[in-house]
């Protein structure tokens, strides 16, 4: 049996209808808010700079070249005041993952099948500390990863992507995604295959 993973239908419809307005207005929209993370999709108009505000410890995934960071870059920020800025003449987008202070321990299992150790050529660590590990996964066409595990994590898709996932419980999941899609996942054991004809990439922000 094949299961399909899609973003929430109403959320997807709202984003589709509001997308052009968001790109023009320079706005932020919450896409995930749970006990551990607050995830915001930020769109900035050309030359826009946000007001400085207080952020929790954060990982930012850049979905456009904003003058300081390239499309696909990630950055880690300690807690504190900061502003987000677009130094270009085109609209840009980024995803801000704030790690909530005082969050409860994540519900997880010991990760024995680490993708970085099993397949280091396609799973690379962008950043790691005592709260988070940021992985960059690259899937060439028709690549099938070994069975591996993740603790609870946020995934941000850097490109169009169509994978199938063989879960540890035997289920097969069809997973088509668009650039900029964001998802929360609990502990997962899976093997992933890129069934598309283009190289795909994603960022996985694993919690500790």
Summarize the structure.
With 208 residues, the protein is mainly beta.
Query: Which range best describes the helical content: under 10%, 10-25%, 25-40%, 40-55%, 55-70% or over 70%?
Result: 10-25%
The residue-averaged pLDDT reads 89
**Number of beta-strand segments:** 17
The parts where pLDDT drops under 50 for at least 5 residues are: 1-25
Named at the architecture level, the CATH assignment of the largest domain is Sandwich
The rounded distance between the terminal residues' Cα atoms is: 33 Å
The 3D shape can be described as globular
How many domains, as an integer?
Answer: 2
Assembly type of the chains comes to single chain
Order of SSEs: EHEEEEEEEHEEEEEEEEE
Give me the secondary-structure category.
Answer: mainly beta
- Return the CATH class of the largest domain: Mainly Beta
CATH topology of the largest domain: Jelly Rolls
Strand order, largest beta sheet: 1-14-13-16-11
Largest sheet: 5 strands, mixed
Strand content: over 45%
